[in-house]
Amino acid sequence: MDSLLVHASTPYSILIDFDLLSQSGPLILSHLDKKPERAVIVTDSNVAPLYLHTVQRSLEAEGIAVTPMIFGAGESSKRLKTVAQMYSVFSQAGLTRTDIAVALGGGVTGDMCGFAAASYMRGIRYIQIPTTLLSQIDSSVGGKTAIDIDEGKNLVGAFWNPALVLCDIGTLSTLTPHFFADGMAEAIKYGCIKSLSLFEQLEKQNASDFLPDMISQCIRIKCGVVERDERESGERMLLNFGHTLGHALEKYYHYEGLSHGEAVGIGMVLASRAGETLGITPAGTADRIAALLQKYHLPTSDPAPLGTLAKFALSDKKRLGSTVNFVALKTIGDAFVHPVPQSQWEAFVLGGASR
Length: 355
Ligand code: NAD
Ligand code: ZN
Fold this sequence. Notes:
Elements: E1 2-6, E2 12-17, H1 24-31, E3 38-44, H2 47-60, E4 65-71, H3 80-92, E5 100-105, H4 107-119, E6 125-130, H5 133-139, E7 144-149, E8 152-159, E9 164-168, H6 177-194, H7 196-204, H8 211-228, H9 243-252, H10 260-278, H11 285-295, H12 306-314, E10 323-331, E11 334-341, H13 342-353
Parallel strand pairs: 2-9, 3-4, 3-5, 5-6, 6-9
Antiparallel strand pairs: 1-2, 7-8, 10-11
Subcellular location: Cytoplasm
Function: Catalyzes the conversion of 3-deoxy-D-arabino-heptulosonate 7-phosphate (DAHP) to dehydroquinate (DHQ).
EC number: 4.2.3.4
């Protein structure tokens, strides 16, 4: 079993292996300093029939009283309304601050259960059991929890670290190719910003042939960044590579038709092209990234007008003051923040990213 300790303000372990769900009870107990008496397992309507029973049985075998809470799968559930239902289930199950919430599912489940755990009784412990590639290599690590409001995605949330993360790689076998590809965009992003060797491995081999190693490398990269910048004041911004224009694309299509990973992939190509035009990214980088995205069945371009995307990007919450912190590549494996004054932003995107 691969295991790493995240040195966050409240340290926690991440365990990576096959078949962790069936051992979740003993693993949770051995990683908590105080034994919980009760647990609410939060999961969605797709994941519940696949994996709830295994986790529930393992926790109950350790003498933990389990109450499941199942919500309708999909981003549209990531709302205060569902969190409010969670509070009621937590309360009716008799959860106290010594008990636990368990997020069993993808990023929607983790973000929402994490937020409920951060706020219920001013904060209870929660366990992440991520079951999508994206949630294993991205959303379950780093302590960001959130919900969506009408005005924007992830606009309400909290920093709240899990007590433990269990990455059961076996759960990915039931993931649809579409959601697998979505996670691959983030894996490619990690290669772009921090690891040429990961990028090259993804070029030479097939991700499915070295999945545990790939997941472990991605988690280690995210952990390193998050450990050095838990509250997103500096290095963590690098994780937004491809996301400034990617988020704009998602918004342009009203979060329908183009998934997050697809949008981020296109965003990475546009960002690299802009870097090439500016002379800060070596020529050929955008094409190389595009070729890798294609290999993993991700799109590399989109007809949406760049001017409109530039405007949408300005309304993104990650813009700080009067500058856009644009993440560019010095080379593959080495990213940096290139601040663009708001007044020059549109010209920067139009002039740089178009070809
Ligand atoms: P998701 O949770 O909706 O899961 C995607 C789909 O896969 C769902 O339909 C789900 O039911 C299904 N599913 C999950 N596990 C499965 C399995 N093992 N087998 C079969 N089907 C399975 O979404 P996601 O793509 O995992 O995550 C996206 C969310 O993560 C977004 O809301 C995004 O904002 C958030 N996010 C958060 C962070 C963070 O730092 N907190 C980072 C990135 C993304
Ligand atoms: Zn992302």
